[in-house]
Recover the amino acids of this structure.
């Protein structure tokens, strides 16, 4: 088969490579030399979402964007990342971050709005717009406004990215599992459209309750219902799972980690005896991490019309799953667990980077 066009190949490779580099470096910087202009935990979470995840979104959705625009957005994104490290005004760093998020969210949302033929597809521009609002809200304290809102904005952004993965990743994986099952002589795996439609609203309920640091009943009900919907989806996929390659196993594993994280978050109001960050890291490292790395490797193989690197993808997924479990247990195991989880995360990102640099 003929190779994909150079411009398309360049776009996803640029952003995916940048995302992998940033994901690894930000963990190292957070551990050894966090910026003085922000709290270490806040900066770490901010860069996972508006640095790493935003770059993955751009690499996935900028396929039809012109090269000058791609390069301009990439430079803006990179400037926003390094601004926190160099001695520049916090206001400049905040402005660069919001500008980069606005560019990525705006261009990505415009693509959905132009091609949207069904009402259910408008969820993507809405979520991307909310992601931009969260970055803006998280930076307002720099300008002396909305003091104390950084944590709430970061939590909301985490659940927005989770919702994007559940909706978009669920559709991609569901269609692929159904195709596998039919090619093997089985029946079509029909999506549960009613449940799929309420899933973003359930995640939204979790987000609002968590960000407000209240409404424990709403938190528990929405978290458990969302986890239940994901489990029902996984049961539907089960007949085709034995036929799947590492890409679909990776997408399914991400959904499992999200369900596990939501279950743990739903237990928080009842004082389960573990830190609130434990289930949150199942969501972020296991859910967001595995889903994004799998999609970067899968998308690269598809757009370049190559066979996916099965061994590389399997290694990256296993490393991230291991990192998620170890980090979730870290407060009970001890400080060594933080280092082990960080090393596993960085190793997975280096696996992804190696694929992006290989021709």
């Amino acid at each position: 088969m003929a190779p994909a066009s150079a411009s398309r190949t360049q776009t996803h490779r640029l952003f995916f490579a940048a995302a992998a580099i940033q994901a690894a470096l930000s963990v190292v910087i957070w551990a050894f030399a966090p910026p003085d202009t922000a709290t270490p935990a806040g900066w770490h979470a901010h860069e996972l979402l508006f640095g790493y995840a935003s770059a993955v979104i751009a690499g996935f959705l900028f396929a039809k964007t012109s090269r000058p625009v791609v390069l301009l957005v990439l430079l803006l994104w990179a400037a926003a990342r390094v601004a926190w490290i160099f001695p520049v005004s916090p206001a400049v760093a905040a402005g660069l971050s919001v500008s980069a998020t606005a560019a990525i969210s705006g261009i990505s949302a415009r693509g959905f709005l132009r091609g949207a033929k069904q009402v259910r597809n408008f969820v993507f521009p809405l979520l991307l717009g909310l992601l931009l609002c969260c970055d803006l809200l998280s930076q307002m304290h720099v300008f002396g406004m909305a003091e104390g809102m950084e944590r709430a904005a970061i939590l909301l952004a985490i659940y927005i990215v989770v919702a994007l993965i559940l909706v978009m990743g669920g559709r991609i994986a569901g269609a692929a599992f159904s195709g596998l099952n039919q090619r093997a002589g089985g029946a079509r795996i029909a999506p549960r459209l009613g449940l799929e439609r309420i899933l973003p609203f359930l995640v939204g309920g979790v987000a609002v309750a968590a960000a407000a640091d209240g409404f424990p009943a709403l938190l528990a009900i929405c978290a458990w219902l969302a986890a239940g919907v994901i489990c029902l989806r996984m049961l539907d996929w089960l007949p085709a799972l034995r036929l799947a390659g590492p890409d679909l196993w990776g997408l399914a594993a991400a959904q499992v980690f999200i369900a596990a994280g939501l279950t743990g978050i739903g237990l928080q109001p009842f004082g389960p005896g573990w830190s609130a960050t434990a289930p949150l890291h199942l969501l972020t490292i296991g859910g967001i991490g595995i889903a994004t790395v799998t999609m970067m490797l899968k998308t690269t193989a598809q757009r370049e019309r190559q066979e996916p690197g099965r061994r590389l993808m399997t290694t990256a997924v296993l490393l991230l799953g291991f990192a998620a479990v170890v980090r979730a247990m870290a407060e009970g195991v001890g400080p060594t667990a933080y280092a082990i989880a960080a090393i596993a995360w960085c190793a997975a990102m280096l696996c992804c980077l190696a694929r992006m640099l290989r021709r």
Notes: Residues 6-357 form a domain with the Cytochrome C Oxidase; Chain A fold (CATH 1.20.210.10). Residues 272 and 359 are 49 Å apart (CA to CA). The first helix runs from residue 6 to 32. The chain has one domain: 6-357.
